[in-house]
Amino acid sequence: MSWVSSILLAGLVLAVASPEIRGKGYYSSRLNWRQRGRPLRRRLAEEAAVAAPPFPIAINTSCLPGCNIKGVCNEELARCHCPRHFMGPSCSDVAPNIAEICANYGFTLSQCRKASPCFNSCNQRGRCVAGICHCQPGYWGMDCSLSWGPDGKVQLLEGKYVPRKDGLKIYVYELPPNLTSWFNIRRLDRPLHLLFWQRLMSAGLRTADGNEADYYFIPVNTRTELAPGMVEWTISYIQTNYPWWSKDLGHRHLIIHTGDMGLHDLPSEMRVRLNSSFSNITWMTHWGIHRYHPVAKWYPAHRPGKDVVIPVMVTTQGLHLSPMNPRVAAIAARRKRHTQRTGTFFFAGRICGDRKPPEEVTGACSPTRPDYSGGVRQLVYLHHRNTTGFKVVPGTKTYLQDISTHKFCLAPLGGGHGKRQILVSFMGCVPVLIGDGVLQPFEPEIDWSKFSVSVPEKDIPDLPRILNNVSSETLEDMQKRLKCAAQHMFYSSSLGAILGEDGRYDAFETIIEILRVRKEHPDVPPENYVDVDERFRKFIDCDLASSSAGGPDPNVLCNQGPDRQYKGMPTCGECQRSVADQRTGGTFFSWAGGLVCCSELDITKCPRVWV
């Protein structure tokens, strides 16, 4: 049986059977707080069980009797959702092909039964069993956040959830676990759909009432070989079991896709067959190609104004050492060691598509993969490996230092989308963008020409003249704008601060702001958002009100790196260590609400920059 057939079979079995910002002292006291409970080893041993023992609570349920013994009842749909090892209408039957199921989801058989992080640590409303939340009776959802309210409607976190004032309302579909929590989270290299889901919760933007929703988020994992079958099954499942798609034929539905080629990662036959559904969905992807590229043979996969190009989830270490970090700049000033950008242009990384180094004398790559990077990296190296003031090399041991000491840095494509425009922006190096027909993250909503240099591919030989024509005044203005622009490109509220920011302008909030403007001005082209919406213009310029001191609030977001950015605010490492024994893992996956929550275990009490 193929992987796609396995997921469809498992899915069909399930379908049929199936706040207020705190003061400085708040975090200091939280760091010394420990909940008395079972020793860590014992707790992990219990989590490693195939299924948790039944909860000793009897409640009325819409599912078949016995569901809550090994499964979780989705009370809203009256479906029993099973862990990996069980199946059937009440999850009472042992899955006969468990080894195949585990392999399909990234586990060996032994790993499949061991402790693994659970999404949002089950919000303290269930047990984490081999990476899957076994919710207390009456609760359901991937993180046990849903239950019935006293008014007979579905509620979030027992009604303690406080929505953001005047914020968007986004409904999240609770899909069967074979589409969400069955995966080995440690092997998901781009789990941005889960990060987005977490922040919707802690930011106060999620609603459990589809009738009041502005948008509908489908949290399906598209970065897997199972994706084609999963996406097709999910859309059919939503159309069959929920009324929200039919309200506007899916036009306000959102899917995050993190593959290299965007929507074109899915089979062409499938895209054609499901075009009536796919074309209505807003796809949030990293791949902004919107016209054909003849060298790479890339076809348009992005629709400006309908889809949104979003930044890659960057986890590169060392960005907190950026010369744009106020703490780093202050230390350099005291030591009188200011960073000098003496070089003109820098790039280090893979040059040739076949991963072999270029020919030493000619600088040419083999003709094996001329499509790689659209041919851009190859041409830049061929023409400028020996250009004065340029450092273009296949590799370097001083990567971040080189970025910090050059004025301009190449931010090319790779096999598809790139991420170097984000990396170099955080280090204060003006990105040089070369890739005909490819939009950058949040372009055209954000005008990249204010802090980068875009060069047509045909002008690569003329690169020295183009960069030398950028005046010192223009270069200085671009470098100043980079500190704001970089914040839009990084998910700091989930991953921790880099530049002492508080997360109010991060990538997550920028997605939300674009969706807000799109809702309020549906007929305005995205490049004109700054002209028709004053709040959006100020947001993009990082010019909305911050703390009373006029800068980032120092009591909101922990920072990356070993040293505190602000005296009263812990580092992200301190946050993690302070409550590590009370979460189900050390990854962001189990960190309810993202790192903006620091050591707070209750997602309803996480700090918010926008209340």
From TrEMBL:
Keywords: Golgi apparatus, Signal. It is a single-pass type II membrane protein. Residues 80-91, 133-144 form the EGF-like domain. The keyword Methyltransferase does not apply. SUPFAM superfamilies: Growth factor receptor domain. Residues 1-23 form the signal peptide. The keyword Signal applies. Gene3D superfamilies: Laminin. Pfam families: Exostosin_GT47. It is found in: Golgi apparatus membrane. PANTHER family: EXOSTOSIN FAMILY PROTEIN (PTHR11062:SF376), EXOSTOSIN HEPARAN SULFATE GLYCOSYLTRANSFERASE -RELATED (PTHR11062). Belongs to the glycosyltransferase 47 family. This is EGF-like domain-containing protein. The lineage of its organism: Eukaryota, Viridiplantae, Chlorophyta, core chlorophytes, Chlorophyceae.
